[in-house]
Design brief:
Radius of gyration: 17 Å
Distance between the termini: 28 Å
CATH superfamily: Alanine racemase
CATH architecture: Alpha-Beta Barrel
Order of helices and strands: HEHEHEHEHEEHEHEHEH
Mean pLDDT: 95
Number of strands: 9
Shape: globular
CATH topology: TIM Barrel
Number of domains: 1
CATH class: Alpha Beta
Number of helices: 9
Length: 222
Amino acid sequence: MHLPLNQLKFIQNKVNEIINTKQLKTKPEIIVVTKTFSLDKIIPIIDSGHSHFGENKIQEAEEKWSEIKNSNKNIKLHMLGKLQTNKVKKALKLFDYIHSLDNEKLAIKISHLQNELNKRIKLFIQINLANEYQKSGINLNNIDEFYNFCVKELSLNIIGLMCLPPLNHDSDKYFKILKKISDNLNIKELSMGMSSDFENAIINGSTFLRLGSLIMGDRKTI
């Protein structure tokens, strides 16, 4: 059996174990992050019936997923990386979810183009929880205003919130903050938890885990 597939099954069992032990109500979807990996490494996972996959770059995603998505309608592709406004049209055509809505200009562009393409994509607002200058995301102080702008003025399909906790910090603290914000806004989905902190994310109510190296192994540097 393929090694990444073995790892995926191991993680699925681990998720179930946490859910059962902690008696949690929410079981998250696992997004297998496949950036830098070729399709031959990914196909065994697709063939197993897994449907959620994530990519960070538009060009790489187009090359890998355009054809196979047409022949496999169960695949749900998640855009996880920063999205430039000049790439929005391509992203809307290929992806089912965008996790990195992080500014007003991008929101307006998505609203305009999804009307043109007649496709209402599922969106996560990326929040910069620690106000880190090197990271994208909406400032905590602006989230209510930005959410209302997206939903009420642009009619965007905001289904969730996403965060990248600061490195080398207690992720649990930041996951709790994101969960509180989502409860206040009555938003159901939470994109939080990566290979290093997915267990904390599950306990704090994550609905989508973004797992790359834990399943696929060490990726190539490009």
